[in-house]
Amino acid sequence: MPRNPWFETVAEAQRRAKKRLPGMVYGALVAGSERGRTIDDNMQAFADLGLAPRVAGHHAQRDLSTTVLGVETSFPVVISPTGVQAVHPDGEVAVARAAANRGVIMGLSSFASKPVEEVAEANPNTFFQMYWSGDRDAMIQRMERARKAGAKALIATLDWSFSNGRDWGSPAIPERIDLKTMVRMAPKVLPRPGWLWRFLKTGRIPDLTAPNLQPPGGTAPTFFGAYGEWMQTPPPTWDDVKWLREEWGGPFMLKGVTRVDDARKAVDAGVSALSVSNHGGNNLDTTPATIRVLPAIAEAVGDQVEVLLDGGVRRGGDVAKALALGARAVLVGRAYLWGLAANGQAGVENVLDILRGGLDSAVLGLGHSSVHDLSPDDLVIPPGFRLTLGGGAD
Ligand SMILES: Cc1cc2nc3c(=O)[nH]c(=O)nc-3n(C[C@H](O)[C@H](O)[C@H](O)COP(=O)(O)O)c2cc1C
């Protein structure tokens, strides 16, 4: 552990995560698919967009707050659901506490390692995320459980096609962790004793089960058991999306949209929000960066539903750019996972402070008093940057 656990950028949090986590856990967070073109473009595209600051007439007071699906947030960043286990013993509960301390909404994956009841208790502003997995009765039971726990919205993530294979190699993740597996994993884990020690101190070893998918009276499936159920479930139609939205009945976000025609169908299915997302570059490689396809989607449906974006956000300036191009808020994935790995709950708070500080600087430098005033006029947009998928030529 460095003498000063505070870090100044998300890049530094990632460096510390790499040092502290066993290679296979770090590799599972890096993720990405095939060549990694999409995961790279998600970040590169933010770097290619410029800012056009003003020099005087700045505002001493700046309002960064907004709402997402009717829930207040102190600034427009939402914790994106990640089904990641074994990063830290407090897992999603630590993330939820950090988010609550910073006035931020928590997105909880159904594949997470902590039960929705514990997470919603740590952060009352929790949105629960589901895939289209299992039969309808199981989906209803999972939604009812999340609703009873106090989840304020449902996120349905549909952009997954089980593509796998990474040119840089995928980590070998065990089916479940028992003593035999620990012995087998020892050579990979022992070079990172701090990580193991954090778990052993709590009297637990990393838990690779998905408690939010536990059937009533049954046991929680393993991560891979849950993945198997999902793979075997026939993919949803737009009528299924409508059914899910009706069964939930409350605020409903569809995550994974990249095409204008899909965005329009999502509106027809009655969603209240959508996230322009390519699953952080983990789905079909060579899908363009989300920030490139955001403007066309925001223009097409932004007056009917809330449009969010996720993918590649590592700085407050990235948040400002997404808002300037039509997003109401962004979701972040790896950024907070690096913080969690680097310094637990305080590391997630550190990451949220970095994003908030960077956004505030951008709003100040661009001469605005509120995040709602950001517009394309604040940006330098390279020729050919914007792409319209499924909505005519661009
Ligand atoms: C390790 C990992 C696990 C993820 N698990 C889920 C998940 O369970 N459910 C989900 O909707 N998205 C999941 N995602 C996608 C994120 O919610 C989000 O879309 C993505 O991380 C955004 O990109 P970023 O990491 O560049 O911020 C996962 C992403 C990563 C990196």
Automatic annotation (TrEMBL):
GO terms for molecular function: FMN binding; oxidoreductase activity. Keywords: Flavoprotein, FMN, Oxidoreductase. FMN binds at residues 81-83, 109, 129, 157, 255, 277, 310-314, 333-334. PROSITE patterns: FMN_HYDROXY_ACID_DH_2. This is Mycofactocin system-associated heme/flavin dehydrogenase. It comes from Actinomadura craniellae. CDD domains: alpha_hydroxyacid_oxid_FMN. Residues 2-384 form the FMN hydroxy acid dehydrogenase domain. Glyoxylate binds at Y131, R166, H279. The active site is at H279. Belongs to the FMN-dependent alpha-hydroxy acid dehydrogenase family.
